Amino acid sequence: MTAGLRVVSLSKSYGDPPVPALDEIDFASPSGSFTAVVGASGSGKSTLLRIIGGLTVASSGQVTMDGLAPDELRRRKAVGWMAQRPALLPWRRVIDNVTLAQSINPRPRTLPDPDQLLSMVGLAEAALAYPGELSGGMQQRAALARTLAIGAPLWLMDEPFSSLDELTRETLADDLLDIWASATPTVVWVTHHIPEAVSLADRLLVFTPRPGRIAGLVEVDLPRPRDATSGAFQSVVREARQLLRGAPRAEVVA
Amino acid sequence: MNRRGILAVGILVVAVVVWEVAVQVADTPVYLVPAPSDVAGVLADDLSSLLPAAGVTLGQALAGLALGGAVGLLMAVVITFWAELEQGVMSLALLIKSTPIIAVAPILTIWMGFGPGPKIVVTALLTFFPVLINSLEGFRSVDPALADWFRSVDAPSRQYFLQARWPSARPFLFAALKVAAPLSLIGAVVAEWMGASSGLGRQMWLSYTNLDMPSLFAAVIVLTVLSASVYRAVVATERRTVHWA
């Protein structure tokens, strides 16, 4: 059994004749690490995330987390899935959204207290509100609480902040990092926002589009919390940008 | 009352006045077109018999709607859980829906007599289809992002149905009821017209055979008010139960 997330020569094509979306993706993320997948729209980042989460089947290749295949991970409720839209149940109160996550397909493990989760994400006051009564940022906070609620060791997050304004995004990112530091799940974070990726992740997988390929790996060796205005931060951002634009692999610091 | 409300009432009043004046001026015989004042007179005099008749019709209509709604809903649930049955169930539903009610109603009366039976069945035949179509669409209308989340926690299909499909379908169910509830009254009245011992349809039929136009119009007005009230009741219930939409 191998610890952490392993993706081995993973490919995916759609349609007939097949159009490749992902081409021979290979990477490994240690347990408890934070990996950001960055790339332009259509570079297959979301497809990769869906395959890891067992929501889409790969055409070839392999994904395992601690030796388990995606479907097995889902069955064990080991996947914390968070998408671009909060996707809460609008007919249930915020607190009931969180408890539902725990009561569906229950697994024998100690789960965090829903009320505590809500205070952790700053929603203690909004526990009894319906999602429709909350702002976009608060809804995404509720979705985060729901993700935390199942105590999953793997978080798959598909641009969860992309529909939020800059300020909300930054405060949520800070909170998220605090929570991640205490829960230490393995995170795969998809985004097209390079500074966001650099401020959050341990490393960046930079994707080039059509079909999605890994252009390079950028380690972010900076202490958290990170100062986005510092020179070191900026140079990592620059490095990722160059990779995105198709700079030769020789320049990659991996 | 706001401006729109006043306008709505105004238009109604103008229409009634025009009708009254037209009948008086043209001196139309009352067995062809009664004046609103004639109808109002009958309404006032016969209310004690019209209201119980309306009660009978409403009861049969709602019973038929309940039966038709339950059958339509059940078919939609079956198709949702066993997609391979869709073509079979839908073909059967279309076949039943396409039978001409006007031909079926007398046969049902021969089989089941003058009681509520045929009315309930005719109403169910008319109302099951809109409920089936809408609830099926509703069950399939779950937000894809929400569906992803349910899959990510490996929710059993029963849970997915109760927590995602059913609430998602509720606005669709109410859309169906807005059509089906007024339709259920038409169904009951048509069936009563084919032979009944009581009900608004029977009253209409009696008035019709006696060429008693004011009575016929009075019954029609009661039916119209009933139909609008049923519709309003559905809308009010929807506002209370589908608060998130």
Explain this structure to me?
The complex is a heterodimer of chains A (254) and B (245). Chain A is of the alpha/beta class and 254 residues long. Helices cover 33% and strands 24% of the residues of chain A. Chain A contains eight helices and nine strands. In chain A, helix 4 crosses helix 5. Chain A is globular, with a radius of gyration of 18 Å. With 245 residues, chain B is mainly α. Helices cover 83% and strands 0% of the residues of chain B. In chain B, helix 7 (157-193) runs parallel beside helix 8 (200-209) and helix 7 (157-193) runs antiparallel to helix 9. The A-B interface holds A 50, 53-55, 74-75, 77, 79-81, 83-85, 87, 89-91, 100-101, 104-105, 130-132, 150, 156 and B 143, 145-146, 148-156, 159, 163-164, 167, 170, 243-245.
Total E-strand runs of chain A? 9
Structural class of chain B: mainly alpha
General form of chain B: globular
Tell me, rounded to a whole number, the average pLDDT of chain A.
Answer: 87
Oligomer: heterodimer
Give the H and E element order of chain A.
EEEHEHEHHHEHEHEEH
Poorly predicted regions of chain B: none
Secondary structure tally: strands of chain B? 0
Q: For the CA atoms, what is the radius of gyration of chain A?
A: 18 Å
Largest sheet of chain B: none
How large a portion of the residues of chain B is in β-strands, by DSSP E? under 5%
Order of SSEs of chain B: HHHHHHHHH
Mean pLDDT of chain B: 92
* Apparent shape of chain A: globular
Structural category of chain A is alpha/beta
Percent in strands of chain A: 15-25%
Overall helicity of chain B: over 70%
Given the structure, what is the number of helices of chain A? 8
Protein chain pair with the most extensive contact, residues per chain: A-B, 26 and 20 residues
Helix count from the secondary structure assignment of chain B:
9
